[in-house]
Amino acid sequence: MHASLIQIAVDQDEPVKTRRERVAELVRAERDADLVVLPELWTVGAFAYESFAAEAEPLDGPTHEAMAAAARDAGVWLHAGSVVEAAGDDLYNTSLVYGPDGTRAAAYRKIHRFGFDRGEAVMMAAGEELVTVPLPGLTLGVATCYDLRFPELFRGLVDAGAQALVVPAGWPARRRAHWTLLAQARAVENQAYVLACGTAGTHAGVEQAGHSIVVDPWGEVLAEAGPDEEVLRVELDPEKVTATREQFPALKDRVLGLPRPPRHG
After folding, report:
1. pTM of this structure
2. Has 17 been annotated as catalytic?
3. CATH code of the domain made up of 2-253
4. Which residue out of 55, 85, 145, 197 is catalytically annotated?
5. Residue 1: how many CB atoms within 10 A of its CB?
6. 145 is catalytic
7. Which residues of 84-110 are buried (b: 16+ CB within 10 A; e: fewer)?
8. What is the spatial distance between Cα 7 and Cα 23, in angstroms, rounded to a whole number?
């Protein structure tokens, strides 16, 4: 399976409509891929809190229309990163996944909101559901940015059948070391691919880490971007997940967090 991660530079001087159109063309250019992944909140910027309400859109809003068309034109599975979703009186940080025919296959509302009682943590509602997406030969588990710090979420995705964990993000440069470390840790502990796609540039005064990364089920880094806008292209082998879990069956030795077997006698 060919995967492309598009590390988008988010510049607040670029109008959202212009960036949306530009990114749609970047997706169309990856027509040789099977899966394309975009970052978190690339339309507005993950730290541009003051713009969240103004740029919020329904699930069938302009980003949906642009990304559905781009996925269909390229004939790819597209994880379109996330948008600020307007749902009644609530806002959500919602990831969107599309099939090669342009149909929306899944939407994931970010469960762990960042901000420590500020920003996203108070402006957005929390999602509640884990989301997996079965692709031909490989099941994706969907998470977003700050979720990366909560291993129980990823273990739940693996229990639901995930073989590759996709993490769009708007991760700050000052914590870049955590980004790389956590991406590798989630891959090793879950014996799954991790595709972590971040943003480049600086928005709302926050320099972005860039350095999108793809890690295999053994923890080896297959590809890593630099700090600027870039496309990572990698080959994923679904059989490597199966082989890793069979050759080093650590997941079978889990004890905590599992239902206890019934006692007899």
Report:
1. 0.95
2. no
3. 3.60.110.10
4. 145
5. 17
6. yes
7. bbbeeeebbbbbbbbbbebebbbbbbb
8. 10
Domain ranges of the chain: 2-253
What is the total residue count of the chain?
265
- Where b means 16+ CB within 10 Å and e means fewer, 197-229 reads bbbbbbbbebebbbbbbbbbbebeebebbebeb
- Asked if residues 169 and 39 have their Cβ atoms less than 8 Å apart, the reply is yes
Catalytic residue among 55, 85, 110, 120: 110
- Cβ atoms 143, 130 nearer than 8 A: no
Per-residue pLDDT tens digits of the chain, which is 265 residues long = 999 999 999 998 999 999 999 999 999 999 999 999 999 999 999 999 999 999 999 999 999 999 999 999 999 999 999 999 999 999 999 999 999 999 999 999 999 999 998 999 999 999 999 999 999 999 999 999 999 999 999 999 999 999 999 999 999 999 999 999 999 999 999 999 999 999 999 989 999 999 999 999 999 999 999 999 999 999 999 999 999 999 999 999 998 876 655 555 4
DSSP 118-151: STHHHHSPPP---EEEEETTEEEEE--GGGGG-H
- Which residue among 40, 55, 57, 85 is the active-site one? 40
